[in-house]
Design brief:
globular; 0% strand; 202 residues; mainly alpha
């Protein structure tokens, strides 16, 4: 089952829709915290600070959108307030682990070099996904005539992807090879997450 099939069912049920928004908020917040954790306290750049701040804002914005479902739900990121909670919580963490293993094995990286390279590849893969996921969600919202919208997130995520490509070009002349590996890893994890979503929704 694809997201195109799952989203109309989610949007049609306010309680489920609130949990979906909370799940997206969790994932944006997890991404923001991972970016902050990868920062070097001395050499952190404007772009990294900007990116972390925007991901935190997306998490807040999605949480705020829950009010438009007409439900006072999802006060925390506890399992009962999420959709496919286990997959949603561990999706980004597993991607981070797999990318770190790849970088250690293929490039022999460690310490802050490993943290920074993992930030670049993980974030790139997530931005590629966000550029696909949020427009699909917005189309489903428009089709349902929902008051909720994620257009501002779509615009910022497009900018993030450009910024990640620029940083990756500086990181390695073979950045496309490494980025492609990260996208492969993310695709498997994402497909498992969609299956878990479908199982829970249906």
């Amino acid at each position: 089952m694809s997201l195109n099939n799952i989203l109309p069912t989610i949007i049609a049920d306010n309680k489920l829709h609130a949990r979906w928004l909370n799940t997206l908020s969790l994932m944006e917040n997890t991404g923001a915290r991972k970016i902050s954790a990868s920062e070097d306290p001395t050499t952190v750049t404007y772009i990294i600070l900007k990116h972390a701040a925007e991901e935190h804002r997306h998490a807040f914005y999605l949480k705020k959108q829950i009010e438009k479902t007409g439900r006072e739900l999802c006060p925390t990121y506890a399992d009962e307030y999420l959709v496919a909670s286990a997959y949603s919580k561990y999706y980004l963490n597993m991607l981070d682990v797999e990318v770190c293993r790849y970088l250690k094995k293929e490039l022999g990286l460690a310490g802050k070099e490993l943290r920074f390279a993992a930030y670049l590849l993980v974030t790139y893969a997530i931005e590629v996904r966000a550029d696909e996921l949020y427009p699909i969600y917005q189309d489903a919202l428009d089709a349902a005539g929902s008051k909720i919208n994620v257009k501002s997130i779509i615009v910022e995520e497009e900018g993030h992807l450009e910024e990640m490509i620029n940083q990756l070009k500086q990181f390695s002349p073979q950045w496309q090879l490494h980025a492609g590996k990260a996208v492969e890893m993310e695709t498997k994890l994402f497909n498992n997450w969609v299956v878990a979503l479908g199982n829970e929704v249906n």
